[in-house]
Amino acid sequence: YNILALIGGFSFGDHISAGKVLATKFKYKLKKKLQNFVKKDKLILGICNGFQTLVKLGLLPAIKDYFIQEATLTENKCEHFYDGWVRLKINKSSKSVFTKKMDIIELPVRHGEGRIVFKNKKILEKLKRNDQIVLQYLDQNDNITTEYPYNPNGSIEGIAGICDKTGRILGLMPHPEAYINYYTHPNWRTRMKKKEVGDGYYIFKNCIDYFKEM
């Protein structure tokens, strides 16, 4: 297979911390297989709990190297689980395979531990310098924000998703798989222009196109 996708779903009940147990199992039972998978130019996608797992496994952001934890995803600043829709800005300068030709999108979020925290300021600085920040939360005026509820967790720099330096590993808190069909948006009948598909569809289409173009 060519794509490894880790989905949301509170693996192991989020005991210890979200994604920690699953990340530990991967690290000590599947590390060599994952290393080989990454070396073969294949794709890894982590959504919500999958993103939490990739960060705690050390596959993201992987500034120094893979399997070294440099960040974590912790409790939302609002101090509660949040379920709603958000607007997101895509960084067009990013190498992310998953977000090519995308700009501003809307996706649902459903999490209680989505605030990204870095080991030190240098990690964040390098992340920005490398254009590894892929998705950022927007307010009602389409400005990048840390303010609730537009940014449901309070992540610094409005970070909603990041990639590794190759652009082949992506983790994000919003749920693209929950907006494949245009009609699943709560406002599709009122304020929205009709679309052929939901915004999340293109993230998966880009995965397929990546291998078609190889």
TrEMBL record:
GO molecular function, one term: ATP binding
GO biological process, one term: 'de novo' IMP biosynthetic process
Gene Ontology cellular-component terms listed: cytoplasm
Pfam families: GATase_5
InterPro entries: Class_I_gatase-like (IPR029062), PRibForGlyAmidine_synth_PurQ (IPR010075)
Cited SUPFAM superfamilies: Class I glutamine amidotransferase-like
Keywords assigned: ATP-binding, Cytoplasm, Glutamine amidotransferase, Hydrolase, Ligase, Nucleotide-binding, Purine biosynthesis
PANTHER family assigned to the protein according to its UniProt record, in alphabetical order: PHOSPHORIBOSYLFORMYLGLYCINAMIDINE SYNTHASE
Name of this protein: Phosphoribosylformylglycinamidine synthase subunit PurQ
Source organism of the structure: Candidatus Mcinerneyibacterium aminivorans
